Amino acid sequence: MSYRILATVVAATTLTGPVGAENRIDGQSPLAPELSNYGEKPVGVRQIDFVNKDEIDILAVDPSGDRPESLPRYDRPLSVEMWYPAAEGSDGDTSLKAYLRDGTTEVTLEGRAIRDAAPAASETPYPLLILSHGYPGNRFLMSHLGENLASKGYVVASIDHTDSTYRDQAAFASTLVNRPLDQRFVLDEMAKLNRDAESDFAGMIDADNTGVIGYSMGGYGAVINAGAGVTEAAAGFAPQGTLAIHQAGSDSHEALDDPRIKTAAAIGPWGMNAGFWDAEGLEGIDMPMLFLAGSDDATSLYEDGIRAIWEGAVNVDRTLVTFEGGGHSVAAPMPAPEEAYYFNDALGFDVSAHYNDPVWDQVRSNNIAQHFLTAWMNLELKGDNSMSRYLDLPELGDLGNWAGFDAGEAQGLRYEILSAGEVSAAIPLPASIWLMGLGLAGLGAMRSRRRDV
Question: N vs C: which end of the chain shows fewer Cβ within 10 Å?
Fold first, then answer.
């Protein structure tokens, strides 16, 4: 207990900083591992607005009575923040405007990416990474990953998921249905951008070589796009059977399979804790996956949540990085902007708690995520076998011999690998049992406590 109190004090001191400090997203802790360092490429950033036409309007679906012949439809807007390698010598504005968790306070973030910089000239396209935030969140929540990975030769598309942002948070059912669809749609649009001869990014984006990185509900979407189908019982969590499109074994779920997605990484993925998957659904995962989790995650849960997903993906090689004592915010959100350090009466909590972990320094945990995601994506998407040394580690970080970490700097981390066909533990109770206990009222209670997912 004394260690956690000390860690909390150190984290708060580090992250709050002096009054008037910049809200930087590019922080590098003195304890940062090797591959968290920025790459050699300058980075540009640009907002792109897409519209997914003629989608089911989940918010307008009447949940009562029999399912009608046709459901209400609308054109679904999706804004994307795109980070990309920029032309040498690029110069300009490096700030980002973003809203806080309270949905009303706009703040200025500072990074290294140059707004609307000319893209780098390259004879070979860059692999595509899709970033997907939690519920609620926004496209800037993991901006530290966006520009860090772009500096290493990736195009990164971070999505504002409609009905799931700080500004427009709406019924959870919309997020459940739309999250994997949004990820797929943005992949399609980025591929079109690459093919468009009139685009600044023509020939720059290798959409056939894509990785999805999701946090919390973004991780839920990543797990579905990796091949996992939800249970029949879970499909009842959205009106008029609209979530059944993601049900394991359904034609619609099989149709979601996309060979362009080569790998996925899930940070604190939500879903197993609420019975959305069982052994059959997780067996559908058909690509290598990286999981990052806090052992004390009270939102997605650890043993009966994130770890159970990792264990259940029995048909693929998969890795789990655990932050001992870490909670749901570890390794994904940017450090809390200074304006977030206040208690919001409407939300019922200090807004900074949405961003910061109470045990792990947020800059350091972000650096660790940058390190492992760099190694993982370089290996899986670029075929860089030199990355294997960073991904073949003893289980406990306190042994002091993790590649990329100085002696003692991996303490508190656990690293586990399961190969395809390997099972380390039984999966928790079947989803039907989970949902009988949880029920729709349980989901409503979870939302009423304003727990962010």
Answer: N
Give pLDDT tens digits for 239-248.
999 999 999 9
Quote the CA–CA distance of 32 and 365 in Å, as a whole number: 9
355-372: b (≥16 Cβ within 10 Å) or e: bbbbbbbbbbbbbbbbbb
Model confidence pLDDT, tens digit, residues 57-89: 999 999 998 999 999 999 999 999 999 999 999
Two tokens at 73? 């439809």
For residues 130 and 191, is the Cβ–Cβ distance under 8 A?
no
Packing angle of the helix pair 217-225, 172-195 (nearest 10 deg):
60
Q: Do 130 and 210 form a contact (C-beta atoms < 8 A)? A: yes
Residue 417 CB neighbour total at 10 angstroms: 15
* Cα(407)–Cα(399) distance, integer angstroms: 8
Tokens 């040498």, located at residue: 88
Q: C-alpha angle with apex 335: 392 to 182, nearest 5 degrees?
A: 75
Question: What is the value of pTM for the model shown?
Answer: 0.91
- In the Cβ-directed half-sphere of 427, how many Cα atoms lie within 13 Å? 23
